[in-house]
Hints:
A two-stranded antiparallel sheet has the order 1-2. Strands 3-4 form a two-stranded parallel ribbon. Strands 5-6 form a two-stranded antiparallel sheet. The chain is mainly alpha-helical. It contains 21 helices and 6 strands. The site of arginine has 10 residues, from helix 8.
Amino acid sequence: xxxxxxxxxxxxxxxxxxxxxxxxxxxxxxxxxxxxxxxxxxxxxxxxxxxxxxxxxxxxxxxxxxxxxxxxxxxxxxxxxxxxxxxxxxxxxxxxxxxxxxxxxxxxxxxxxxxxxxxxxxxxxxxxxxxxxxxxxxxxxxxxxxxxxxxxxxxxxxxxxxxxxxxxxxxxxxxxxxxxxxxxxxxxxxxxxxxxxxxxxxxxxxxxxxxxxxxxxxxxxxxxxxxxxxxxxxxxxxxxxxxxxxxxxxxxxxxxxxxxxxxxxxxxxxxxxxxxxxxxxxxxxxxxxxxxxxxxxxxxxxxxxxxxxxxxxxxxxxxxxxxxxxxxxxxxxxxxxxxxxxxxxxxxxxxxxxxxxxxxxxxxxxxxxxxxxxxxxxxxxxxxxxxxxxxxxxxxxxxxxxxxxxxxxxxxxxxxxxxxxxxxxxxxxxxxxxxxxxxxxxxxxxxxxxxxxxxxxxxxxxxxxxx
Length: 467
Ligand code: ARG
């Protein structure tokens, strides 16, 4: 291309004597990553063209040509035969240039009453909205599998931990349901992201609105937006919904990372509480015995990366003056990577959970060969009238006595119990059985089977809700 040809190929050649330097172009072009906005860009342009015609800013004829041309480009991109050009910088100019090459003058009218600043904002709003819905579906799939695993294993008792020390016996299902409800908050957080992405920015122009008699409500309706930005500066500057997406994504990943951490040690020989499906693990190239929980480890690892994208976005926007600054182009790669990462992590996690084998005998042994029933011992005395502080001390002494003798509470004779308090009688043995410990915790939200069944009911109702 000659210098003059290059200059006129660009969309702002008029003001310039030279075309953009090649290296500078490569540095500032976003096409390599924003091409994934092609659908939203075309959808947005179609709505814009319809509106321009409806408001008689362009002719109906031109609008028809534009729309047909855009649809052709969409088909071409989806078939993989659209050549994205770095000289055309971004998705908006790549599409507009080819459209104009294809349909002539009408193509040159599409950008009337529009700037790339409100155009890119529109594309990103549409994209985030769409991605939120996909993420929510994947959250639901994982919730379903967690609920199914909890129902299937109802009755399995395992130690509940604090400080990673056996604390009190709980139902394994209760533990799984904790993650169900954490994911429900993630689901709700993404609904909040959707609400903040559901505001229509087009019509803000470069920053101050437009001199043309546009109809923003028409565009909002065409694209199914709930609201319209009432301030053009806010419309082109706002990246809150992206920060919020990354924040919801980070919290979601933190939840998955906590679950990963637990699954990783549950899989170890030391715990041996669960076994992952062979198809979900890898071996070692050197150590023949290894079966590694790579997937939870990778999810835990990728959490850092998503948090990094949130930090990057917050830092990019911090101190940015209104309205558009090229810094804002940095809103894309991190977001796109976070989207891919959380979608992939959720999808693999749904499989991990459905393939996970629960080793109930080992969990049971971990409960029996320990003192996680010591609180129940104290509660037993309290119910016989002993003040809790005193009961706590008696139970502590009994635990100490057992540790010295290398036995557990259930192995003590009634006489031994009575040596520590005359309130003990034969019912104590039943009171410290794991089943009793669990089912006595029947307070709302407790670990008893009844309480967990109530959680199942709530979970079933949540999964039945439309959204
Ligand atoms: N590629 C740009 C971005 O992603 C589009 C908006 C460009 N606007 C501008 N005035 N340079 O942010």
